[in-house]
Specification:
about 350 residues, alpha/beta, Aspartate Aminotransferase, domain 1, Aspartate Aminotransferase, domain 2, binds pyridoxal-5'-phosphate
């Protein structure tokens, strides 16, 4: 006898990338920033005192909201702080999608395929319908993306930009076209945007009159804080207010709020790491290309590389790198089976990878 709902029983759950317990590995498999967070972040965590731990944290993370609003030139009410970007995704699915897949109706979630493998898992948890529209050969969104999601009755569309796992950046005017044509909420997942040449914040400009756009940000990659679990959403106040109703009362803690606020207040220090990653990304791309790999130009902190057909296949390379304590990501799924996703590491880490390859 089991007690869980049928949809939970039927689902497999999300499989995170390997997290090897030894620190003595070259870890290029889960897109962490290879550089440490800045000193101000560690100082902010140290400065949290017994009294602020005794009390509940500010429920809406007001200081953080103010810091984020200042960075992006929006109002604090347009920001929601979450326990990682993942919590924002879960909240969006909870708030904008109907849990009645078995009944056949209701608002579902629409995604492009392939993309972040958590999206379908969240849809399964909510028991909402998922509509997956294949990306074009060049990893861009098809022109009829919004129409197809409208036809399927989606209440939420999630587009990761820069795209994961290809690293391709969709231009903002294409996102705007999707937002205008789509009848539900368009979430642009900008988890990796700190490494890109531009973001989609201009879509939030009231002059554009778009009130159905939500942007996701993560402090895991850009700010080197994957262990902290902090992210945030930005959008029109009605969208943010709706999600605030559905979140846990105290979804982010005092340590996280202090650290995340300091991280945004010291953004130029994080930006130094972004520039270093971008420079290494170019070097890695060039070096792998010279070895016969096909590498898609990436605007993210990872690259998607196809090994030359003349040598061992992607899975074999993944395995033998792992035997040498070098972890990259292999996806056993359509369009990705012949590729490796490689997080851009430090110069020393990338050299080890290139040497092993
Ligand atoms: C595409 C994408 N979106 C969102 C996230 C969420 O990141 P986090 O929950 O660490 O902020 C990730 C993490 O890997 C991701 O790859």
């Amino acid at each position: 006898m089991t007690y869980e709902r049928d949809n939970i029983k039927a689902m497999a759950g999300y499989t995170p990338g390997e997290q090897p317990s030894s620190v003595d590995v070259v870890k290029l498999n889960t897109n962490e920033n290879p550089y440490p967070p800045c000193d101000a972040v560690l100082g902010a965590i140290r400065s949290v005192n017994a009294e602020s731990l005794r009390r509940y944290p500010p429920p809406l993370a007001d200081r953080f909201r103010n810091a984020a609003a200042k960075v992006h030139g929006i109002r604090p009410e347009q920001v929601i702080a979450t326990n990682g970007g993942d919590e924002l995704l879960r909240l969006a699915v909870t708030v904008f999608c109907d849990p009645n897949r078995s009944g056949g109706g209701g608002k579902g979630v629409g995604v492009a395929e392939p993309s972040y493998s958590l999206y379908p898992v969240l849809a399964e948890i909510q028991d909402t319908r998922i509509t997956a529209v294949p990306l074009r050969e060049d990893w861009s969104l098809p022109d009829d993306f919004a129409d197809r999601l409208n036809d399927a009755g989606c209440g939420l569309a999630i587009v990761v930009n820069p795209h994961a796992p290809s690293g391709k950046l969709e231009p903002i005017d294409r996102l705007e076209r999707v937002a205008r044509a789509f009848k539900g909420v368009l979430m642009v997942d900008e988890a990796y945007v700190d490494f890109a040449s531009r973001d989609a914040v201009p879509l939030l400009d009231p002059a554009r009159g778009l009130n159905n756009v939500l942007l996701l940000r993560s402090l895991s990659k850009g700010y080197s804080l994957a262990g902290l679990r902090f992210g945030y959403g930005m959008g029109s106040t009605p969208l943010i207010d709706a999600m605030n109703k559905a979140k846990d009362s105290y979804n982010t803690d005092v340590l996280g709020q202090a650290a995340a606020t300091a991280a945004l207040e010291h953004r130029p220090e994080a930006a130094r790491t972004w520039r270093a990653v971008i420079a290494e990304r170019a070097r890695l791309t060039q070096a792998l290309t010279a070895k016969g790999y096909r590498v898609i130009p990436s605007e993210s902190n990872f690259i998607l590389a196809t090994p030359p057909a003349s040598g061992p296949d992607a899975r074999a390379i993944y395995q033998s790198l792992k035997e040498r304590s070098i972890f990259v990501r292999y996806f056993d799924q359509d369009r990705l089976r012949d590729k490796l996703r490689i997080t851009v590491g430090t110069t020393a880490q990338n050299d080890k990878l290139l040497q092993a390859i």
